Amino acid sequence: MDFMQQSTPKINGFNNSHCQLKIVNYEAEENSISHETHGLSKKHLVVRRGKPFKLTLWFHWRLWNPHTEYPVLEVFLGNHSDRIIVQISDEQHDPQGWSAKIYPGDIQSKSVTIHICSPVNSPVAQYYLFLHIETMHRSRSTFEVGTFVLLCNPWLKEDPVYMPLKAQREEYIKNDCGILFTGTPQNINERPWMFGQYEPGVLEACMKLLQVSRWHFNNKEKDYIRRADPVYLSRVICAMVNCDDDLGILMGNWSGDYKDGVSPAEWSSSADILHQWALSNCKPVRYGQCWVFASVLCTVMRVLGVPSRVVTVFNAAHDANSNLIIEENFSSSGEKLPGPKDSTWNFHVWVECWMRRPDLGSAFDGWQVVDATPQEKSGGIYCCGPCPVIAIHQRFLRTSFDTRFIYAAVDADVVRLIIHNGRVMKRTVDTKTVGRLICTKSIGSDLLENLTQDYKSKTKPQAAGYGRYSGWRGGQDRPMSRDVRMSGTPFLSSSVGHQEDGGILEYSQMSDGEEEMPPGLEVSLSLKRVPTVGESIVMCVTVRNNSSSSRVLMEHVNAQLKEYNRNAQESFWKSHKEECIKAGEVLKLEHSILSSEYESVLADDDIMNVAVVIKDVLTKERFLATQEFNVTSPKITVEIEGGGSIQMKKEYKAHVSFTNTCSSSVNGAVLTVEGSGLLQGKQEARMAILKQDEKIEKTVTIMAAGPGTKLLKATFSHSNSPKAISRTFHKVTAVSA
């Protein structure tokens, strides 16, 4: 912002004998450093609540006459205003109310420096400031001083978002670059993300978001007052990041068809999304999925001063009917069938925001889950949270907000059914798979920090059987216990299930995602190693015969592709064969899926579902084991002249290459390079045919216009596949010369 601004009088009738304000010096550099807001805006003075900031006022001829005149500041927010008597004092400010002080050494003949302090519970908003010079005779002259933006203050102990450790504040407020974790627990993908809170226009977009919310339209004054509460703020922003109910930022799309927008996988910067939304007069940006919603939400909350971090839940349950159970159906040959509305996503991404919860009590202070991905409505709108992480861990499922839904995402049970001719042939319960790993980026490094123990206790109530699932009993003030034996209609649909005696459906239990069988047969499925494109997928089915007799078995193995949050597609690979196993024998059956059998159908983000069904030919009993994993994409290599650090406004060469590790040639190979703040537009290299082990490469010239971390993105695709085969993001740090 400008360091100086000409002031304009709001009423007329001045003459040279009056005190008249001429120029306002916002002391922008000093205030922004003191308030930890440096770089957030060049248009506005940005300060934090509960901490003094200063303005220097220059007058035309003289200051006010201390014997007959006195200065009063008035702060406006909407239709509400606060009068602040300016005092000459060297006492400390009281952060519980507005105050304005002039220290004795700050008075000059034509200028004065005023230190202004807002209440610690001030709403987050843009304020308007006026100066009145009032006389003992109740006449006054009024001048427009200007505007300032007030944010939450995690540096101040009295603020409900106070975060005590400097390293935490540096990471969860000031860091503008993060790491997102996707894939599967066995093969985690890392991708950088630019939160971009210091990019020009981002703070203004965040403030605009508050001004166009449905809450602000419905009742401006009430909305302004409630913005003092980070619980309210987080809920409003959560709803506004998606566009399902309002003028929100992002439109979700999980169809795979992104022709009229941008594929969610192509985004790498919150600033790009916020700029597009703000410049389009609040039209939703197309398209987002969970990690995009979460990353934009994290950016906005950090800008507003609420410590936030992006969290990934691997094997996250979407429990649409709130029974804490996810049902998965398999055919008798091991094919995963389209299921009910409930599902398990291979990963889901949300945000944790740090705040006190006076509405619940201090026991629920700390990290709160806030999920902007539009899944289910909460209070009639598409938002989720804030929900205390401690409430999930302690199973207080009636705690505000949406704790039951979020608890299910990390700790629901998966019921797997083998279906044959409309009948349930086998039921098993997996109590371990959901929420297998919950993680975020570590403080001060790009390493993964495991948060699973914060969400899940080591012990979990075990169920002997399930009927209609009533969930947890009890109130908000005490731990709840699971009711697992309820009479009535079972939760299974009538087309595939049947009611057993007393309405109780019996299941065998699972351990660590593997099936724990009764005495007889035990079946498990494992990978030899996590495969990379070009390698065979080698699996081992282990069958242990605990009985005293030999058995004849029919083995069915099935492989399907799926996206991280969708039903499996049609099988692309199958195996059926008969095996004999002796009493007490352990049988190991190895299978290989050749790279040529999956490369034509596999894309960069696809997940592979493999299942085995073992059938006892004599007893007709069936046993199921499953694995879901992602195949590692071939790498794109990025080499930048001078390493990972470059000087601003100086040209550098970046060499990008991709080697075809597939088992055969590919047609229509395209290597695309782009980078916001580094490169104008997209640059491509094309080859009609890229043979096996052949390289495609592109050298581009990059130059950083401004300082900070930038991302150079490279993507490889070919005409044999509708999606990108490989994608990489390379971080570049730009420094002043």
TrEMBL record:
Which InterPro entries does its entry note?
Ig-like_fold (IPR013783), Ig_E-set (IPR014756), Papain-like_cys_pep_sf (IPR038765), Transglutaminase (IPR050779), Transglutaminase-like (IPR002931), Transglutaminase-like_sf (IPR036985), Transglutaminase_animal (IPR023608), Transglutaminase_C_sf (IPR036238)
In the record, biological process GO terms are: nervous system development
List GO terms (cellular component aspect): mitochondrion
Which Pfam family name is an example for this entry? Transglut_N
Offer an example of a GO molecular function term for this protein.
protein-glutamine gamma-glutamyltransferase activity
Instruction: Give the protein family.
Output: Belongs to the transglutaminase superfamily. Transglutaminase family.
Protein name in UniProt: Protein-glutamine gamma-glutamyltransferase 5-like
